[in-house]
Specification:
This protein is of the alpha/beta class. It has a single domain, classed as Glycosidases (TIM Barrel), CATH 3.20.20. Helices cover about 40% and strands about 15% of the residues. It is built from 13 helices and 15 strands. An eight-stranded parallel barrel has the order 1-2-3-4-5-7-12-13, surrounded by six helices. α7 runs antiparallel to α8 (about 185-205), α8 (about 185-205) crosses α10 and α11 (about 330-340) runs parallel beside α12. The chain is globular. The two termini are about 20 Å apart.
C-alpha cells in the first residue's frame, strides 16, 4: 500500500489531462530501423557519460512497448507523452514502430502525445545551420501524414534551452560543443523549427499543438545590485529567450540583434499561435554575480567566464541528482508567467515534473509529487489556466550524460535483465488518479 501523505489531494478540474512522459533515445534502444543520432556519436566518445554507458539497449522499449503500454493502462493515466525519434523516422520503415505504438495506446484508452524532437538529432545535421529547421519540417510532415489520423495532441520541441546550453554552449550534452554565447544561433534555429512545425501541423489539420519549454524561477543570491543584475541576465537566458519569441514574437533585451538571418521574418514564423504552452519544471535557480571561479549546479560545471554564478539554495532537501526540492517554486513560476504575459499566454500543461531517487519503496518521490501537485493546484486557485500534468518519467531510463545512475521512473527497470517493477510511487499515483476520477 502506498504511503498516506496526509490530507487527500484537492480536486482538479474535470477533463484535466493526467499523464507520464518519456523520450525515444532514453528508452527505445538502438534497435533495427534507426540511424545514428548526435547522442550515439557523443556517447561513443570516452568520458562523455559518467558511467561509460550508452543507450544502445536503454529499456528496450522498441521490443517491449506492449508491456509498457500495459503499465500505462494499469496506472490509469489518460495520456502518454513520448517522443518520435527523428533518426528512426528518417530510416525506411522506421515509422512502422510508432504506428504500432499509437495503435496499442489507443486500444488501451491512453491518448498518444508525441514530441517531435527530444534532442536526438540525426548525425550529420547541425542546429548551427538554418537548413536543419527546414529538414525538421520535412520530418514533421512525415510523422503527421502517418499518425495524424489517431494523434490529436502534438508537441513540437522539448527543452530547446537545455539542448542549446548543455549541448552547444557548455559541452555537457551532445553534440558536446563549448561555444558559450556563440551557441545563440542554435536557439534561433530550434525556435524557427518549432514555428515551421506548427505551420506544418496546422496544414495537416492539427488543432491541439504546444511546445515543452523548461522554466524555473530565478532567485537573486542577495539584494546586492550585482547579484540582482546577474539573476536578471540568467532569467533572460534560461526563461525569456525561449518563451518570448514564441509568446510575444520578439526576443528580449536586444538578443534579436545577435541572431542570424532575417530575424523579423523568422519571428513571424516562431510566433505561430499555440493551443497550449508546455512547462517542464524541476527547481528554481539561485544566481549571483560572477565569483571568478567555476560554480556548480547539480553536478554541472558553470564556467567562471560567464556573467553569473550559480549558488546553493540552502535549507532544502535535495534529490539524488542534487536538485533542491522547492514545490512552491512551481506556483511562483506559473503565477509569474500569468502576470508577465497576460492574455498572450495560452493554457498551460506541465509537460514534465519529477525527481531522481533510488529504491522501490520510493517515499521521497511520493512526497515530492504530492507537494508539487498541491503547488500546481495553488496556481489553479490563483487563476492560472492549467490543463494537464505529466510526471517524468514512466521508466528508469538512460539519463543522458548521467548514464543509468539516476532513476526518475515510477517503474523500476533492472538494466541487466530489463525487468519492470512498479514502485511505491506508481501505486500512489494510480490511487491519486482513481481518486480524481
Amino acid at each position: 500500500m502506498a504511503t498516506d501523505t496526509g490530507d487527500p489531494l484537492p480536486r482538479f478540474p474535470a477533463g484535466f489531462l493526467w499523464g507520464v512522459s518519456t523520450s525515444a533515445h532514453q528508452i527505445e534502444g538502438a534497435a533495427e530501423l534507426r540511424g545514428p543520432s548526435v547522442w550515439d556519436v557523443f556517447t561513443a566518445e570516452p568520458g562523455r557519460v559518467k558511467d561509460g554507458s550508452t543507450a544502445a539497449v536503454a529499456c528496450d522499449h522498441y521490443h517491449r512497448y506492449p508491456e509498457d503500454v500495459a503499465l500505462l493502462a494499469g496506472l490509469g493515466v489518460n495520456a502518454y507523452r513520448f517522443s518520435v525519434s527523428w533518426p528512426r523516422v528518417a530510416s525506411p520503415g522506421g515509422l512502422d514502430f510508432y504506428d504500432r505504438l499509437v495503435d496499442e495506446l489507443c486500444a488501451a484508452g491512453v491518448r498518444p502525445v508525441p514530441t517531435l524532437f527530444h534532442w536526438d538529432l540525426p548525425a550529420g545535421l547541425d542546429w548551427l545551420e538554418r537548413d536543419t529547421a527546414a529538414r525538421f519540417a520535412d520530418h514533421v510532415t512525415a510523422v503527421a501524414d502517418r499518425l495524424g489520423d489517431r494523434v490529436t495532441k502534438w508537441i513540437t520541441l522539448n527543452e530547446p534551452a537545455e539542448h542549446t546550453l548543455l549541448g552547444h554552449a557548455l559541452g555537457a550534452h551532445a553534440p558536446g560543443r563549448r561555444l558559450l554565447f556563440d551557441a545563440l544561433p542554435v536557439a534561433h534555429h530550434q525556435l524557427l523549427a518549432h514555428g515551421l512545425a506548427v505551420r506544418t501541423l496546422r496544414a495537416a489539420g492539427a488543432r491541439d499543438i504546444g511546445i515543452a519549454n523548461s522554466h524555473g524561477p530565478t532567485w537573486p543570491a542577495s539584494a546586492d545590485p550585482d547579484d540582482v543584475a546577474a539573476a536578471g541576465f540568467y532569467d533572460t537566458l534560461l526563461n525569456r529567450l525561449f518563451a518570448e519569441p514564441v509568446l510575444l514574437g520578439a526576443y528580449p533585451d536586444g538578443l534579436g540583434e545577435l541572431m542570424p538571418g532575417d530575424v523579423a521574418a523568422d519571428l513571424r514564423v516562431i510566433a505561430e499561435p499555440l493551443d497550449w504552452y508546455g512547462v517542464n519544471y524541476y527547481a528554481p535557480t539561485r544566481v549571483g554575480a560572477p565569483l571568478g571561479t567555476r560554480s556548480e549546479f547539480g553536478g554541472l560545471a558553470i564556467p567562471a567566464e560567464l556573467p553569473f554564478s550559480i549558488r546553493e539554495i540552502e535549507g532544502r532537501a535535495l534529490t539524488d541528482f542534487g536538485w533542491p526540492v522547492v514545490p512552491e517554486g512551481l506556483t511562483e513560476l506559473l503565477c509569474g508567467f500569468r502576470d508577465r504575459y497576460g492574455d498572450r499566454l495560452p493554457p498551460i500543461v506541465i509537460t514534465e515534473n519529477g525527481c531522481s531517487y533510488e529504491g522501490l519503496d520510493d517515499q521521497e518521490r511520493i512526497a515530492y509529487l504530492d507537494a508539487h501537485l498541491r503547488a500546481l493546484h495553488a496556481a489553479l486557485e490563483a487563476g492560472v489556466d492549467v490543463r494537464g500534468y505529466f510526471v517524468w518519467s514512466l521508466l528508469d531510463n538512460f539519463e543522458w550524460a548521467e548514464g543509468y545512475a539516476r532513476r526518475f521512473g515510477l517503474v523500476h527497470v533492472d538494466h541487466d535483465t530489463l525487468e519492470r517493477t512498479p514502485k511505491a510511487s506508481y501505486r500512489w499515483f494510480r490511487d491519486v488518479l482513481r481518486a480524481q476520477g
